[in-house]
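Action item from last week, closing it out:
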Amino acid sequence: MASDGRDGRGDRPGAAVVRAVVAVWRGTPAARGRGARGRLAAHLRTTVRSLWNAEHRPAAPRGPGRPPHPAAERRRVHDLVAPEWRRQGADVGWRRIVAALRDQGHAVPVRLVQAALATLKRAARVAEARSRAAARVTVHVEARDVIWAQDSVHLGWVGDAEVCGEVARDRATLATVTASAGPPATADDVCAGLEAARLARDGLPLVVQTDNGPPYVSRRLATYLAHHRVVHLRSRPYLPQDNGAAERAIGEYRRETGLTAGGALASVREAQARLDAARGRLDTARVRTSRGNRTAVALDAIVPHWYPRVDRERFYAASQAAMAEARAGAPSARAARAAEREAIWRTLEAFGLARRTRGGQPPPVAAAAGPARGLTTKGTPAALGASAGQAVSTTRSVQCR
């Protein structure tokens, strides 16, 4: 308000001036008769409504915005909105809620309906997130090179030739084992890539985890893995989340390289160069919050290796026996695959190579298996194994799906 009692809108007086004039005016003869309030409003260059407010409302100014609705009114509207929201469905908007309530004869302020609906939806999202967290199974791999998760991805086209990538990652350290680009491949190419990784990391893992792409279900790969006593952990059909670690690795490489399935490439070398650059950032620069804020290279140097603690032949024999027993009572091929996967995880837990938690707690199956034996990870892990920079990256043929 201006210092002379004006409100800054031309010559119109402020509320305090109007209130003072009205207080004096009400005791004069001019306040009587038809049109008296209108004449005063014209004289003060204000409105009749402003004069009425000055007469009947308290002098204390209220805060900015609309006055809040009483708590009882908010509760009434909330109690009306909640059953209507459940009746119409979780994704219904406030307009349909308002229309339905007014059709039922309820007078409801739109603002209160919006607020009540937002509160209900927010509570539903929180409950859903808690339910997912309670049901989520998290796998903790306790040693380096126990499991390599592998998958392939479309990278683009060189003219009419398709270019694909093959990415494998160690599940304990998140270090890249291989990241290569090339045309669609045979099972021989996948075996050659594993052999190159074996030389780079001084051995193969105990378990290779893949989906059901053509090179991964081939007899050639099965023979190679059996020869080296490597257990093959395959996904259930049409469930990519069974190989979620590899899927996340593929997603990271896609985002870092900018390569897409329909993109044009100058050559396979360009795709490989982008993969190599992305690998450098992901392995040497990216800090993994789930791994104590360390990079994959740092983790590769400090996470203990399974070699000196677990006998490969013993682990392979125990896994094969558990898988055979699990398949025996399965009613279908899909159930048999699920049983095989559970048998492999149970064997890993029994050897102390992995542990699973459901909602932060051991799942019932894992708890029933008893305490893990074999590998011990208490205390500070020794600096074992080579760095992630020794992992293989070759340009070769790969199979993509």
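Closing note: DSSP finds 14 helices and seven strands in the chain.
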